[in-house]
Amino acid sequence: MASSWKGGLPTLRQGRVSLREIQPEDEDPIVALFRDPRVSRHLADPPRSRKAFRQFVKWSAGTRLAGRYTGFAVRQGARTVGMMYVWVVAPGTAEIGFALSPPMWGTGLFRAAGGLLCRFAFDVMKLHRLEMRIAAENTRAQVAVYKLGATPEGLLRDSFLKDGRYHDSVMFRLLRPEFMATLRS
Ligand SMILES: CC(C)(COP(=O)(O)OP(=O)(O)OC[C@H]1O[C@@H](n2cnc3c(N)ncnc32)[C@H](O)[C@@H]1OP(=O)(O)O)[C@@H](O)C(=O)NCCC(=O)NCCS
Hints:
Layout: E1 12-14, E2 17-21, H1 27-35, H2 37-40, H3 50-65, E3 69-76, E4 79-90, E5 93-100, H4 109-124, E6 129-135, H5 139-147, E7 151-162, E8 165-175, H6 176-184
Parallel strand pairs: 5-6
Antiparallel strand pairs: 1-2, 2-3, 3-4, 4-5, 6-8, 7-8
């Protein structure tokens, strides 16, 4: 499966949690997810309209084929309850991002789904470094990625524009050996 992901994503599973490629049927739950102000509050430009979602699905399939992006729907049983992505920004390095529906926050879903995503990024996409840029005010997400094994590297001043204002982000990194060590501990 080393590079076959470019032709189509596998389904990743842990118990009732699964990650599979975002599909047209995810339109309702994903548009609703990004319309929720608790979710979109700290995100630069999530797809909040149906049109934006459809453009995103097309874009994401094209960039996957080019080996630069994987976009997963997060599923709990048969329900889509979030999305996660890996975006290759340089050889061996990718940015990852995630959003879960608020009723799923604090349930352990992030740890399971985030673990599946990182494992896929390291083992299948053969990446070495994952980066997470998280809004400085978004302390919940910072604690969540820290618990996944990520390390804060510094503050990125005025790194994204939202609602007419520039916001700071914290850069987190997770290297392959660091992730492997968290799996052993
Ligand atoms: C980021 C996200 C996926 C994390 O999932 P989650 O289920 O909320 O994360 P967890 O509950 O596993 O971890 C959050 C931790 O932060 C803690 N926490 C909650 N609110 C906090 C706050 N305001 N300040 C500090 N810590 C906080 C929680 O108690 C929890 O720690 P614990 O497990 O020791 O109790 C989810 O919150 C989300 O979808 N947020 C909106 C989108 C987003 O911000 N994405 C990240 C940017 S890419």
